Amino acid sequence: MLVLLVFVLPKIVFRNFPGPAPDSYLYGNVKYVPKGGFPAWLLARQREYGEVFQVWLLQTRVIVLSNADDVRFVTAEMNFPKSDGFVSGLSPFLGDGLLLIDNNRHKAQRRAIAARFNQDFMKDLHLHIEATMASFVQILDRAADEGSVLDFDAEITKFTLNVICRSAFGSNTDFLNREDELPSLVDAALRHSAKYLVHARYTWWLGKLAAPALFETAHKVHEFVLDMIRARRSESELARDERPVDLLDIFLSVPGMDNNYVASEVSTFLFAGHDTTSHTLAWLMYEVVQRQDIMHQIQKEVCETVVLKEGENGFPWPSFDQVRQLDYLNMVWKETLRKRPVTATGTYRVITDDVELPGTKTKLRKGTEVLIPPYLIHQNERYWYKPEAFDPLRWTRENSLGRHPYALQAFSSGPRNCIGQIFATHEALVVLAVLFARYDFKLACPPEDIMEFHSLTMRPRLRRQSKLQQHKGAQTYLPVRVFRKSSKA
Question: What is the pLDDT of residues 43-61, one digit of tens each?
Fold first, then answer.
């Protein structure tokens, strides 16, 4: 009888709601979702069932939304909380950081952090990027000189982790030029979290037994972070006065917060501050190398608009203020966020009252889980003309007039949107200005050999059937060839 109530009855009650029929009463629709292909699978269902439909994740009914008015209602007007299943799945790694904390505590916690996200901090970030860029340029120079294939996604991920550690947590560790444990630990924690997220709502009560590898990896990351926190707390006042303020100072300045709280915020920024930015940069590279007209326009703007100085480390470097003049490059960045949103499936929220969604007029009961995938909204023809095309010019001021303000969900929306979006955008524009001023790039494989692969984030990945992948053996993500601009005729 209990099996019937839990697994069978709900699927019968809601059988007339739009959406694919469950493949089984036990697994729902999960069994036939391709590995790494959840966003594309959802998009296919949207095209079949419309802007609101249901899917069954095991025995949990989830309503998938891609109407911008419904999105505004859920995220901004009502600000419905993150679902327990979503929080349970990520909390072993991210703890009580801004991403997962409940709405009651979120406002004050966010305000305390956001108050320090000022221009002085951004200028310090700019300098940290320059320091890290020197190592990245050496890697690219070597690839260009040797004519070797470079895994751009893998290298840019190490780079962004270096930046977040330097600028946010005062770490001078160089992850680019040596093998280090932290990048592999963070990557493993994200992969294990993605797996745990599927069943956490049912197995959380098992504690560490529910996901031993995740809890072990998360513990190692937290120990690394706690060591950084302890060192900072024991820092002399003189040493503190001689260095720029960083995010760790900000977290430690919030009254009443202990080391575990600070560690949760650090872990959240380790994830949100590098993984999302790095994969977006990789997708931008993938799109641009296929469009020489776009690459040349970027290079033209960088050369004409920005006076690039040879920095102390021997590479061109834009000033903080010059970065703001890169209008076309910013449009390319925005278009990448639209077409290839790395947070492709978004977050799960729970409806806390019986409501009617204003856009689709769909009635939802209290307790219903909803999912707002940016991947679907960004492919919705209601808001985007030819959404499958990569077109930076859709972001000109003229073409943006009248567009729904909630049609772009790359950084989410409402009170719980991404606090670091200005941080990410500045970092991206600086990096891209340097790269396209100094190099040309080409894909080292046919474009169709690159697939979208979604775990917690969506990154480019070389297909296993690719000849290059079979030759390299180890998983490759975005293979490119690098050419110094001065070396090409």
Answer: 999 999 999 999 998 889 9
Amino acid at 417: N
For residue 317, how many C-alpha atoms fall within 13 Å in the half-sphere facing its CB? 18
6 Cα distance to chain centroid: 34
Neighbour-count burial for 244-261, b at 16+ CB within 10 Å, e otherwise: eebbbbbbeebeebeeeb
Amino acid 337: pLDDT = 98
Residue 356, helix vs strand vs coil: strand
Residue 303 known to bind ligand: no
Contact assessment for residue 298 and residue 329, using Cβ atoms and an 8 Å cutoff: yes
Give me the residue spans of the domains in the chain.
Answer: 66-487
pLDDT tens, residue by residue, 164-222: 887 766 666 555 555 557 767 887 888 898 889 888 888 888 999 999 999 999 999 88
Predicted TM-score (pTM) of this structure: 0.93
Pairing type for strands 450-454 and 458-462 reads antiparallel
Bin 158: left if φ > 0, else alpha if -120 < ψ < 50, else beta: alpha
Distance CA(90)–CA(343), nearest Å, equals: 14
CATH superfamily of 66-487: Cytochrome P450 (1.10.630.10)
Q: Which two tokens stand for residue 223?
A: 């120990």
